[in-house]
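Escalated from tier 1: zinc ion holo job.
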Amino acid sequence: MKAKCKHCGREADSEMFKLHYKYRMMVCADCFTGKTDRDRQKKEASADPRTGGKPPGWDSEDEYLEKMSRMKQQQTVSRFQPILGTKLYQCTCIGCNYNFKFDPLKNMPQSCPYCNEPVPKFKGSVGVNDLF
Ligand SMILES: [Zn+2]
Ligand SMILES: [Zn+2]
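Tier 2 regenerated the structure:
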């Protein structure tokens, strides 16, 4: 006969169940010998810190979406480069890679002077000091 172990949640032969002095409940043979606890500790110790700590339910789709949104952010950020000594930004056109000056205060030009590709929304920070 099989029974579910309340400690590890696994099904085990009910005849192997024993009362554990510490857990104060009937546990399977693996839990009684401490094997399940050792397995868990081993798993936690060997968990890769980069992949560990992810919320449960994290799957490859989430990972893909996260990667995509990170890439999108990087693209937007790297498209505008501040031009030192001015309030203008060097903008690289996503359509033709043409470099032109972009004025974030006037939000001009709104499209690439070379191929007319719309300029992506400027996400850089325009500080209050820059405005006055
Ligand atoms: Zn168990
Ligand atoms: Zn262009």
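The helical segments are 29-32, 35-46, 60-79, 128-131.
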